[in-house]
Structure formats: C-alpha cells, structure tokens
What does this fold into?
Amino acid sequence: MSYPQTTPPGRFGIRNVGDGPVDHAATMPVAGLCNPFTGAPSLAPLAVLVDHIAGFANHARRPDGHWTVSSELSMEFAPDAQTILAADPATPVLAESRAVGAAGTTSLSICDLTHGGTEIGLATVRTFYIEAAVHVPGAFEQPVESTEPLPTALADLMAVEIAETGGDAVVLRQLAHAAVNNTLGAVHGGVAAAGLELVASAALNVGRPQDPLHTASLRINYLRRLIGGGRSHYTATPLHVGRSSGVAEAQGIGDDGRVALTARLTAYRR
It folds into this structure.
C-alpha cells in the first residue's frame, strides 16, 4: 500500500508491505536524503518511517472512538548504519513493528530496521489514546493526490530551512506545509523527530567535517503539538563533544515560544 504525496508517508515514499494482526511492515527509500547543515547522508528521515509503522502497530489496537498520539520515540543505530546506507542508497530501509505487552492508557511498539537484509537499528514508539479527536485530511482518511512535483532534497521534503548556524547554536526553521502534517493538523511526529536529529547531529559536528560523529541514539519526548510556520523551529546545543563521542540536547519550539518536543542525541566516531 502506498500513500498520496500530500501526506507525510507518501511524501517520503513509504509503502506498507505487511499488515497483520501482530506485525506491520513498511519500506522507505533513502537515496539523496542529506543533512542540510553538513551535506552528509542522514539517518534523520528514518524517524518518519519509524513513527509511521511503529505508531501503526499502536494505532491498530486503539479502543473504539479513540485516536493515537505519539508521546515518546527512540531510535538506536548500529555503529555502521550510516555507512551501510551511504554505500547502497538505492536499497530502501525495511521497518517491521509489533505491539509490546498490553495496551492501557498508552501503548508501546518496537520496530526493527534492516537494509538489504542487514540489521541497522531498532526503535520504539509509545502513544497515548485520545477520545473524539478532530481530524483533518491525512494519511488515514480522505487523501488526495498532488499535482506538484515532489522535491528531492530532505529539507524541502520536510519543509524546513536553515535559520542559524555557527557557535554553539544550530537552528532549523519549520515552515507551514500541509503535506508534512498529521491528521490532527500538527507537524507529523516523524518529521519533527527528524528535525531534532538534524540540528543535534549538526551541533555535534561543527568544525569537524573530516572526522564526523555518527548518530547512535535519539530519544524524544513529545510535550505538545508543534504547528509549522511563524517562529516554529528546532534548535540544538552540544552538552559534550569529545574526541570519540558527543551528546547534544535538542528542542522543537512552537510559534508561541513554548517547547513542544525535547530530545537527546548521542553520537560516536567510527
């Protein structure tokens, strides 16, 4: 199953390839998806795939009359994950997810990431259930096809632009664009997670283009909805940058100046 380009899954070329009562699977192409700050191939867009298919495992067992909203997302990558993707960008990444344990107020799912049969990482998504949600057209209802050509650069796919770089701060502005929104009208959780990864990894790699630190883990908390446009942006500052490892903190800030998402990224030198 594929999605229209006016939805986040369709915009990133995600295709559902499995949909069972226990397991769910989807693929996503990764060719040409580079960090706009560094120009290096990026693991960030895999957050869109993770939030989609791991979130789907939670969504599939929602109670009647409820909808799902991501509250936490984490990704853990093998040390050579970025190298593997860069060596064969034409092969899509496969994500297979399943729900973990019983669902209560929240639901947890786990997701395995593979590339050409090689394991490159794993991820988890926790969602909570909300009642009587008001939806806008999106990935799960009333989608429409776009008549505009789909962009190829990651920044354009995400509808983001560099706002600031240099020193300790790295800032990426989140523009308003309906095609990167979820069914509740906020920026898709995976797109927002990708924005946090981009700024955090860029903050750790300022001044070290020949000896980069590669993302190993990303852990995100969703605090409230992030609406694109206005002063909405992602920003990150390094907490530690060593010879072989680094840790950065990132935030997604809404137009009202309030923190909507917070994250911590850990990276290592290969």
